[in-house]
Amino acid sequence: MGLQQLARQLPSVVVKGLPQVARAVIACDDAHGTTRYKLCVEGDGLRDVIATYGVNGNKTTSNNILEVNLSFYIIFL
């Protein structure tokens, strides 16, 4: 997908504002021969990010263990 095509499609993209998110960046990954896009989000609100339409919760990661615990109710023994 070319940059110009992406720029033409961008106005039709629905953006949902999450107050806990400070910054979001779309990263392009061409490593496996096909272009894949990742949404990198900086901030809190893992549960809200996972609940956003179009986000694959099974492939969502976080480095904030407290928020992961709150989002998934993980019991640490």
Describe this structure as you would to a colleague:
This protein is of the alpha+beta class and 77 residues long. Helix content is 26%, strand content 22%. It is built from 3 helices and 2 strands, in the order H-E-E-H-H. It has helices at 3-9, 46-50, 65-72, and strands at 21-29, 36-43.
Highlighted features:
3 helices, two-stranded antiparallel sheet, single chain, alpha+beta
Strand and helix map with partners:
Elements lengths: L2 H7 L11 E9 L6 E8 L2 H5 L14 H8 L5
What is the tally of helical segments? 3
Average pLDDT, rounded to a whole number, is 80
Rg result: 15 Å
Class from secondary-structure proportions: alpha+beta
Short description:
It contains 3 helices and 2 strands, in the order αββαα.
